[in-house]
Amino acid sequence: MTASTYAPRPHSAQRRASDLTSLPSHTNVAAYLLAEAPGEATAWIDGTGALSYANLRAAVGAMMDRVAALGLDRGEPVAVLAANGTFWIASYLAILASGMVAVPLPTALDAGEIARRASWARCGALLVGRSQSAKAEAAAVAGIPVLEEEDGDAWARGEAADFPVTEVDPDADAAYLFTSGTTGDPRAVRITHENIRANTDSILGYLELAADDRMLVVLPFTYVFGASLLHTHLRAGASLVDHPSSAFPETIVQALADHACTGMAGVPSVYNLLVRGSTFTRRELPALRHMQQAGGALSPRVLRELVAGQPHARLFVMYGQTEATARLSYLPPEELLRREGSIGRGIPGVALRVLDEGGADVAPGEVGEIVATGRNISPGYLDDPAASARKMSDGVLRTGDLGTVDADGFIYVVDRAEDFIKSWGYRIASTDVEAAAMELPGLIAAAAVGLPDERSGERVEMVVVTGPDHPPTTQDVIRHCRERLAAYMVPARVHIVDALPVNANGKVVKRSVRELCIAASLARASS
C-alpha cells in the first residue's frame, strides 16, 4: 500500500460538513448527505440510545482518521462488514468522504465468502463490526488489513471533531454493490457519487420527506433499498430507528408504536407477515403517514388489506434495481386501487420505457422489456465489460423484466424473464399464480415455479406458508387456483413449508423454491 492522498489535518484548518451552505458537484456524497440537518437533531436510534447529527458527523471524522492511518490510496476499495448501526453508518460515510470506494458485505456471508469477495474486489481494508469479528479472520489470513470496532471507541458516540470535506470527481466510484448470491462468481455494480446524489434527489422529489420524519428500518443497509432509506433520511435531516429483524412481525408493530414512527419500508415478505401474521391492520398507529414497498410484487389482495388496515398512511409502490442505485419508478398512492399491479412511471430524472425486440415502444397491452435511462444508472459492473455492455450499454439499463403499459403510460411488470414458466406451450407469469393463491386469507406467503415435466415441458408447483388462523390445505389452494386460473396455470402440486427461502434482503430466492419442490416430490415418492 502507498501513502494515502488524504492525510488528517487539524480539523480547524478544513471545511466541515456542517459548515457547508452550498454543495458543488465535486463535493463528496457523504458531505451532501449530512449537510442539511442541525447538529442537535436525532439521526439514528437503536438499542443503545439516540445519536445526534453532530455526533454522527464527528463519528465520521474520527473514522476517517482511523482509515487514513491505514495508508490507503484515494479510490481504493474498503469493505464494511457489520450489522445496521452507528459503526456501519460511520464507516460507510467515512469511506465515501475520504474518496475511497465502499464495499458493503452482507453479514449472512460465511467467513470464506467474505474473504473471497474482499479479495476479488481488491479491497485495501476490511472494517468489521464487533458482532462479526470472528468472520474477519479469513480476510486477515488473505492479507487484507482488518480494522475492528472496539469497546469504548471515542468515535462511537462522536467525541471527535466534525469531519473534513474532500472533493471528488462526481463520476468516480463511490461503492461496489454485489448482486450475486452466496455461491457462484460475484458480480459487483459500480455506483458513483453522482448516482447516489441523483437517485436521492429523485426519491425526495416525490416522497416529500421532512425533518420530522422517523423511519423504522428493517432492511439491511447492504441492500440498495435499505441504503436508499439511509441516504434519503440523512439528506432530509430526518431520523432512522433500527429494528434488527423482521422474523417476528408483531415486534415491528410494537416498534412503530413505541417510537411513533412516521414511515416504514419493506419487501413483499415483510408486508405479507405484517398483514397476515400480526395486528398491523388492526392496530392504531396514528403517527404512521407513509409506507414504501419495493423488491418485488405484492399480491393485489394483500395490498388492499394493507391499505385498508392503515388508511391514513400513504403507500408508495416502487420499482428499482441495484444497477439503478435504487429506484426507477413509483406509483402515486392515489393511483393504487385504480391501477392495481402497476409500478407507476419513472421517478423524476428517469425515463422508463417498455420496448419490443426491435427497440420500439410497445403498444398498450403488448409485452416488452423495461429499459431505463437517467443519472442514477450505474456505469457498469466491476471488471466485467461484456456483462456491462449487455446490461447497461451507452447508459441504457436493460432491466431483464418484462412489462406492459396502459394508455396513460403506467407500467406493469409481468415477470422477470427467467421466472416465466413455460407449460403446454404457454408462457405463465409466476406472479399471476402467486397472486391468485394469496387471495386465500389463510396464506402468509406463496411462491410458484416451473419444474421439468415430460408432458407439459414445465409443470407449475408452489410452496406456501400458512397462517395460524384457519390454515388452508394443499387441496384448498389447488381448488382455489382452479376456480380463478386457466387450467394450464393451476399448480400440479402445492407444498406447505414453515417459511419461504429468502436472501439477506428478504427477497424470495426462486432457485431455492425449486429445490424445495424437488425435495418434497422425492420425499413423497420414497414414502
TrEMBL record:
Q: Which Gene3D superfamilies does the record match to this protein?
A: 3.30.300.30, N-terminal domain of ligase-like
A GO term for molecular function: acid-thiol ligase activity
Write down the superkingdom of origin: Bacteria
Q: Which residues form the AMP-binding enzyme C-terminal domain?
A: 433-507
Report domain AMP-dependent synthetase/ligase positions. Answer: 36-382
Q: Which InterPro entries match?
A: AMP-bd_C (IPR025110), AMP-bd_C_sf (IPR045851), AMP-binding_CS (IPR020845), AMP-dep_synth/lig_dom (IPR000873), ANL_N_sf (IPR042099), ATP-dep_AMP-bd_enzyme (IPR050237)
Q: What is this protein called?
A: AMP-dependent synthetase
